[in-house]
């Protein structure tokens, strides 16, 4: 199990002093689905980026902690007492990813010339390697493996580099793509380059399925999707929870996706804080009544 | 670049490496360029009189020409003192092992080879020991296979002896005459080594002709002359790979490449070059394309203090085609000024230029290109695309495309992008587990992918690795 805990989180834009988060408290556990809702500019995306370590934001106060338990890391790693809780704010984005944080982007970067296969395998191996480094520091340095050259296309990187080899990875990728009903041609396309909005979102879910995070923060993954694609993406998200036990923090404007991805908890964000939390019924109420009643409820004004 | 000059201005020299200056020479000239020195070179090579005459005439032209100047944004050549450079050193074969020994190479070069994963035998080859043996063997095998088809692939010096008629006709006559520019003249006077490739009519050489070790083993890379003659309907891919090895014993580089693309012939010339950081890398490379001929240039330029390199194609025959794909990477203290030059001198000719450059740590890259479409070259088309990627605010990148269009029935396209490597892109990759360095490497590898995919795998691998090493700053 893993638990992500945001407490009293304050953040501002790194260049400039525009305050965006003003004391966010939130907890997400493996296996749970949380919906984070709120009007534009309320701080939802910033929360997501701060969790993942985006350099554009500076945390001025508060904590982002990740608590881990043994089973989270499989049988071969027993987590020491002092490694059960990590302060994510001390870590680089890739280290956070290695510990099991995943950020699904609203607008994923398009990287020309880098095939999906190459990217995903590199990412998976980087994650495995980084995780080993984070957890095995005190065991002394591992004997560095010799790089014996390239077995495959140079575009795929050295075949012997990393835990997961090319052939093994192809199989994983193919399987996950089938599950998500993605065309196999995706594997050889360049990362997000020329993808439609829906394809990009599907790709984000695919990445989460491959990287198997303990906590996935999905930033408006439902935006710009038609109903069919929305269902595909939703199925993918549910599978993350059901098959991998991933905890989901689903950022969204709309009730729509919550019809397919049923949240255990719903939070409403207003002005950089969680203004209200509740169960699925809260989302339905928001759908009917908008956000103003929350504002009224919390601040006494509209 | 002057528009009335029908050729490219390019030059090539290499600054001196003190560490080998006093060693390893059976024959070495004095400093500077004199008639005596040229005669000595020619005599040492046992050249026919006509070649000596060409050398001497080139020397005269060199002495009467001014240094290139006045180009906008021209790299600084003020530290280059040709008179201080020793134009010719022939390694002493007997002592070669002692001096060109791997262990005597500077650490940064050895590290480079290590990191490139080049095996010991190849390292020796690249550093000048045993290369000759190794490459002789390879070369002989290839030779036999091709000889049956009438293909000639040999050392340029040997070509002068064995194929004088072909060389006499093509060597620095119509393609790159010494009068072209000061460094072409210099090259004409002191040239040494290089490759000669002759492909007879309708012969296709399926595997790439590679000059990798040989040039280096001979230790004469600094003035290499490459002459490729592809007769009507023939096809050949020539690859010159000089990653780090030209660091050796020589002081001056003034290389020349001449390519004759016959009717319906197809030549690809690929090069991956990585020079030491105190090299002035100033080349002259040109191709002439006959009717329906196709010329393709693929080049990766790294290393060097200054590179000025603008491979040129003259589309002389109707329907001939040119493609340029170039990549440049400039780090600290480097000025990589590269591009392409194409003359459309006949109707229905077409050209494509794709240039990619990467600047980091205060380096400068510049795309300098000229596309000339002559009056009467109707229905010709050209498309130029240059993309620059910068890593930081200290690095600079310029684009200087020149288009001289004298014909109205043509199709001309130019597109340029200059971008700083995106923080959002890096963050995206980091959020997936890649560290900052690996994220940048991946973006750069993707950026140059169109070039690496044009190269045979070992060169692509090497190019990728070189760039990775540069990205780590470990080439110093």
TrEMBL record, chain A:
Keyword vocabulary terms for this entry: ATP-binding, Nucleotide-binding
A GO term, aspect molecular function: ATP hydrolysis activity
SMART domains, A to Z: AAA (SM00382)
Entry-linked Pfam families: ABC_tran
Region (Disordered): 134-163
CDD domains: ABC_FeS_Assembly (cd03217)
Acidic residues: bias regions: 134-150
Residues annotated as domain ABC transporter: 4-296
Name of the protein: FeS assembly ATPase SufC
Organism: Haloterrigena turkmenica (strain ATCC 51198 / DSM 5511 / JCM 9101 / NCIMB 13204 / VKM B-1734 / 4k) (Halococcus turkmenicus)
Upper lineage: Archaea, Methanobacteriati, Methanobacteriota, Stenosarchaea group, Halobacteria
From TrEMBL, chain B:
Pfam families membership: SUFBD_core (PF01458), SufBD_N (PF19295)
Residue ranges of the region described as Disordered: 1-31
Gene Ontology biological-process entries: iron-sulfur cluster assembly
Domain SUF system FeS cluster assembly SufBD N-terminal per the UniProt entry, residue ranges: 138-210
SUF system FeS cluster assembly SufBD core domain sequence ranges: 213-447
Feature: compositional bias, Basic and acidic residues: 1-25
PANTHER family: FES CLUSTER ASSEMBLY PROTEIN SUF (PTHR30508), UPF0051 PROTEIN ABCI8, CHLOROPLASTIC-RELATED (PTHR30508:SF1)
Family the UniProt entry places it in: Belongs to the iron-sulfur cluster assembly SufBD family.
Protein name: FeS assembly protein SufB
Organism, as annotated: Haloterrigena turkmenica (strain ATCC 51198 / DSM 5511 / JCM 9101 / NCIMB 13204 / VKM B-1734 / 4k)
